[in-house]
Amino acid sequence: MDKFIEKFTELFDNADIKDLNESTHFKEIDGWCSLIALFLISMADEEYHVSLKRDDILKASTIGDIYHIIQNMT
Amino acid sequence: MNLTFKNKEITGILTVLPSKEVRFEDEMENYPFSVETSLKLKTIMGFEKRRIVEDGVCASDLCIFGLSYLFDNKLLNKEDIDALILVTQTPDYIVPPTSNVIQGRFGLKEDMICMDINQGCTGFVLGLMQAFLLLDQESIHKVVLMNADVLSRKVSRKDRNSNPLIGDGASITIVERSEINNMIYANIKMDGKRAFAIHIPAGGARKPSCPETAIVEMDDIGNMRSQDNLVMKGDEVFMFAQKDVPPMIVSLLDFSNQTKDMVDYFMFHQPNKFMLNKLADKLGIPRDKMPSNVVENLGNSSGVSIPISMTYNLGNRLINERLNLCLAGFGAGLNWASMILEVGNLNFNGMIFF
Predict the structure, then answer these.
(1) Can you tell me the distance from the alpha carbon of B176 to that of B140, in angstroms, rounded to the nearest whole number?
(2) Buried b (16+ CB within 10 A) or exposed e, B61-71
(3) What pLDDT does A34 receive?
(4) What kind and span of H or E run contains B83?
(5) Minimal-distance CA residue of chain A relative to B223
(6) Which residue of chain B comes nearest to A12, CA vs CA?
(7) Strand order in the sheet with B8-17
(8) Chain B residue with minimal CA distance to A32?
(9) Chain A touched by B350 (CB under 8 Å)
(10) Are residues B234 and A34, on separate chains, in Cβ contact within 8 Å?
(11) Which residues of chain B does A17 touch, with a Cβ-Cβ cutoff of 8 Å?
(12) Region B7-31: what's the mean pLDDT?
């Protein structure tokens, strides 16, 4: 989980984005947009070899939700 | 499916680009997103400037302009054309084939084949395959392969998903039997289960265009488009390119008994810079061997992007030397195809502006 949060934080490429955790509502993070969603899909592919879908991201609220979706796919 | 073609070659390429250039910054206000987000998108995706046709310009107009240039400059003789293939998703008419319109415009001989093929981003590789197949006929010595699309006319100006990247253009590729013995290796795959990942809902017989299909609506992230417009499922298309394209290239190299190092350039279709860079990294190909500068300078013109990249990036080199190229197209269908062939000592390889 820690590694996932670290990777998730890197998606924003912004030093002000820190201290994210499992229950962070990621769509409320400053800078969240469809481009970051694409980076997330790409990261899930590269790091976890899974195909995350746009609908998965739309339905999820917290970083933990996304993590569990990915875990269930692997 | 693996395919081989013997003793065929490309002998010339001309690309036709619209003179009209639009810049990403000038259109940012069309999109309901913050300037900051849009600028980030610009950097990552390589959105800068692109070429689109003026209102009313059709695929055949670009092709006719290019063919006239070749005839006028004695780079191509009308009588020598045994087949005219037009690969396009934006034909002038549903009936007749646009290739026939072009044939008639120039008064080409009746003893020939005209053929329209509906293909998107795979269109250059698939068009070459068709040209090679025709050249197996004794009567066919020279095939003129045209790729042309004016998709800007089908994309909503307020759709940030597609509008910032779309470009228009045409290419004319001369394909002939080769005087030197050669072998061209290719492969192609198709998956109609994902047919609607890239789609124009209205305008065909299933849903004819009418006032209702022209109504512009907002999607769930704020893009505005109608059913007459092109719609792309970005996540599906992205994953398609990342999942299906690399194994195709690995398989083609294996089939042709070549290594990555033996390929001088990987001339891939250019959807956007991000997708292409990810593909290069995934395949372990240095980014300078896979040009990705067409979208930022000219736009993504679907099946025309590979020949545009060949004229834009390898212009005189393909006239003066021979290079071993790996081509790959992937898109609407969903279809994906690749080909390894030597290209060089071309009679011409240039760009003109309409």
Answers:
(1) 9
(2) bbbbbbbebbe
(3) 82
(4) strand B83-87
(5) A34
(6) B40
(7) B113-117, B83-87, B142-149, B169-177, B8-17, B348-353
(8) B37
(9) no
(10) yes
(11) none
(12) 94
- Residue B354, pLDDT above cutoff 90: yes
Computed over its alpha carbons, how large is the radius of gyration of chain A? 11
**Cβ-Cβ contacts under 8 Å for B62 (sequence gap 6 or more):** B16, B18, B53, B148, B150, B168, B169, B170, B354
Extract the tokens encoding B232: 């792309």
One-letter amino acid of B31: Y
Predicted TM-score (pTM) of the model is 0.94
Checking if the pLDDT of B341 tops 90, the result is yes
Per residue in A22-72, pLDDT tens? 999 999 998 888 889 999 999 999 999 999 998 899 999 999 999 999 999
Domain ranges of chain A: 2-12+21-73
- Nearest-Cα distance to chain A for B279, in Å, is 11
Over residues B177-229, the pLDDT tens digits come to 998 889 999 999 999 999 999 999 999 999 999 999 999 999 887 889 999 99
Contact A23, A8 (CB under 8 A): no
Return the structure tokens found at B107. Answer: 């008064």
Other Cβ atoms closer than 10 A to B2: 12
> Are the CB atoms for B169 and B18 separated by under 8 Å?
yes
- Cβ of A38 within 8 Å of Cβ of B274? The answer is yes
**Architecture of B1-354 per CATH?**
3-Layer(aba) Sandwich (3.40)
Closest CA relative to residue B344, chosen from B55, B18, B9, B16: B9
| B274/A contact by beta carbon, under 8 A | yes
For B148-158, write each residue's pLDDT tens digit. 999 999 999 99
Q: Which CATH number fits domain A2-12+21-73: 3.40.190.10, 3.30.420.40, 3.10.420.10, 1.10.1200.10?
A: 1.10.1200.10
**What pLDDT, on a 0 to 100 scale, did the predictor assign at position B35?**
84
Interchain proximity B238–A42, CB inside 8 Å: yes
- Higher-confidence residue of B89 and B28: namely B89
pLDDT tens-place string over residues A9-23: 999 888 888 889 999
Q: Looking at this protein, which amino acid is placed at residue A44?
A: A
pLDDT bin (cut points 50, 70, 90) of residue B37 is confident
d(CA B97, CA B99): 5
